Amino acid sequence: MKDFFTANVSEVDPLISGAIDDEVRRQTDGLELIASENFVSEAVLQAMGTAFTNKYAEGYPGKRYYGGCEFADVVENAAIDRAKQLFGADHANVQPHSGAQANMSVLLAALEHGDRILGMNLSHGGHLTHGHPLNFSGLNYKVADYGVNKDTEQIDYDELQKIAEESRPKLLICGASAYPRTIDFERIGQIARSVDAKVMADIAHIAGLVVTGLHPSPVPHCEYVTTTTHKTLRGPRGGLIMCKEEFAKDVDRRVFPGVQGGPLVHVIAAKAVSFGEALHADFKTYQLQIVANAKVLAETLSKAGLRLVSGGTDNHLLLVDVFMDGEGITGKAAEKALDDVQITVNKNTIPFDTQKPFVASGIRLGTPALTTRGMKEDEMRKIGELIAAVIKEPESESLKEQVRRDVAEITSGFPMYPNRLKRPGIEATTSK
Ligand code: DSN
Hints:
The structure is a single chain. This protein is an alpha/beta fold. It is built from 16 helices and 15 strands. The strands form four sheets. Strands 4-10-9-8-7-5-6 form a seven-stranded mixed sheet, with helices on both faces. Helix 3 runs antiparallel to helix 11, helix 4 runs parallel beside helix 11 (265-278) and helix 5 packs across helix 10. The chain is globular. Strand 2 (59-60) and strand 3 (63-64) form a beta hairpin. The model has no long low-confidence stretch (mean pLDDT 96). Bound molecules: D-serine (DSN). D-serine is lined by residues 36, 99, 127, 177.
């Protein structure tokens, strides 16, 4: 048993240890532009890799179904208090393992089976859990949907009002996973109240902007607010629900025992650490830079002749139409060509897309992760030019060779996780 409690993963499991090392190297050597990803601090990583993973703590602080939860209570109470302070919310539940489980819990709290929801169409920027037919939200509830205006590619609030009046939902779901513009939560709240509906705002993408005042907060206007903790908020992977006090009991009992069993206390510890980081003044500086970087990236791509959905961005992400009615390449081809040069993005449908979702006409880019590394406007200009060049000549091996060198030069100036990088000279143990 001596080794059991002391040996490192590299000593006991070379395959997994090698893959972990390779992943750190991949993240370090590449340009990460997936809008929903970010890099957590070493402190957050450490909090996650702790003995709290051993602990069952079903229930809530002070009311657990297991003994020995006194330190789990310290962690969960800290996460709750910090989340409430960050968002200015009455109540926070920090236990959801993911954004999908946060949303599922709210739908269970707010609705009866078969009630109607009104959510943003996935192909216009919404999310699976907002009513997609293959998701629990589409399987258990009647669904009406809204999207963006064909000309502006932005939410048409008058149209939304009309759809709400026609469909009479019990819950209006707003928030998006691929929408580059500011969302008018106040107006959405008014629309919901005019048809006697409640509102759930899913701010998974923009939570970091919301807590720093760079995007209007939904908290005063919406009964329920959900988010993931790992995107602009820069915490560990996980979910979070905020609600008005009158809904707190219902939300809590839908998370546990409704949807989940024991909470992941090690992840809640990491959430608490990241919320503490987000309460620091420098978190606003970071969020301001995310937005500034997105604007420069958008301008650069636009100047290079690519079409930006909605014409630009107000937040951390941009949706680029790379297909351009057949003049360009598909999102799938663009994702692959960029992957070849260690620029990581995801293909994404654009509103009124003519391509299937797995092919798509667009790619989605976001700046949270590269901004965490310290990159600023100059790097964004260079990166935008590299992306545009690859999309214009996706088959050119000589261009890709050059871009790979440029990517290596950029990333080498912005090191990360020095204590977690594989020792130099040790070869990769897994292959791509
Ligand atoms: N998969 C997330 C995203 O990429 O936006 C949403 O759940």
